[in-house]
Amino acid sequence: MVRSILPYSKIVKKPQTKAYNPHPQTLGEHIKKRRIEANILQKDVAAIIGVSEDSVTYWENERSAPQVQHYPNIIRFLGYYPFDHETKSIAGKLKQVRYCLGLSFEACGELFLVHSTTIRSWEMKRNPPSKPTQLLITARWNSLEPALTQTQQNNESNKTI
Q: 81: helix, coil or strand?
């Protein structure tokens, strides 16, 4: 019995990229939207942020959330501040400082020379910091890079101009 060998080639199409939410609500949705718009792979995003590819996959699929130490690199990757909280009060400014610098409650407490539970209570508006500490927080907030603190709405309005 003679078997003939016929040329065979299989054409496999790249799977369609899943659609993303045009108005992202979660940090994972923000990352996915930016990644798809930039037409880059999860492994590339992981290299930019400094995490594993699995981490990016989990974030995008809402299986886990990034640790605060990764927030500065995520914010730089996105090109805007993705968190939706007010920044008019000291509590909001403190939270933005903590997120932009990637500080845990403990590390933020060391920065402002207080205990981590004090930082947590300030952010939750349980009790306000003293006036000198409020001035320190405001000064630190004012010293943040504008690119880190620019929100998505501001970023989109700048693109249309």
A: strand
